[in-house]
Design brief:
The protein is of the alpha/beta class. The protein has a single domain, classed as STAS domain (Transcription Regulator spoIIAA). The protein contains 5 helices and 6 strands; from the N terminus they run βββαβαβααβα. It is found in: Membrane.
């Protein structure tokens, strides 16, 4: 996803080629529930998206990928298989020195993430109300600190919908 100029709106860069992206950050829009029937597919697809982005960055000699933002605005349901998949993706990303960031989780999704302690796993400071807030937080960290820094992100509100 990329940012539409002069807005806080993020859209698919294939549909909106004029949308801009930031080096070091990839935004992935999950367009449906995260549950037992598609969790394996989503895990594999997220991995392929990341591999494709890293390959593009290598060819262009831009900054390396550091943040993966999952836009969950279209996710109405997440079950235990979906939570397990998110935990697995987070571990895989950690081994690759990438940070998982969540944007736009709905109330029900947030309840499940909290109940499973996934919010504690990634840190509440990495869960944001909007994609724009998530991008701002990542961009701030890209220019000031390392992704695993325990330092809180000042000026960016935490998502607290528990």
């Amino acid at each position: 996803m990329g940012k539409i100029q002069n807005t806080e709106i993020y859209r698919n860069i294939e549909q909106y080629p004029q949308a801009t992206t930031l080096s070091g950050i990839i935004i992935l829009h999950i367009d449906g529930p995260i549950y037992f029937a598609n969790s394996s597919y989503l895990r594999d697809r997220i991995g392929r998206w990341i591999d494709e982005e890293e390959e593009k960055l290598r060819k262009s000699e831009e900054n390396s990928l550091q943040y993966i933002i999952l836009d969950l605005s279209a996710v109405g349901i997440v079950d235990t298989s979906g939570i397990s998949m998110l935990e697995e993706v987070n571990k895989i990303l950690g081994r690759r020195d990438l940070k998982l960031v969540i944007a736009n989780p709905g109330a029900e999704v947030m309840k499940k993430l909290s109940k499973s302690k996934f919010t504690e796993t990634i840190g509440k400071e990495w869960i944001h109300l909007t994609v724009a807030e998530a991008v701002s937080a990542c961009d701030f960290m890209l220019h000031t600190a390392k992704p695993d820094s325990p330092e809180k992100i000042s000026g960016i509100p935490e998502f607290n919908n528990v």
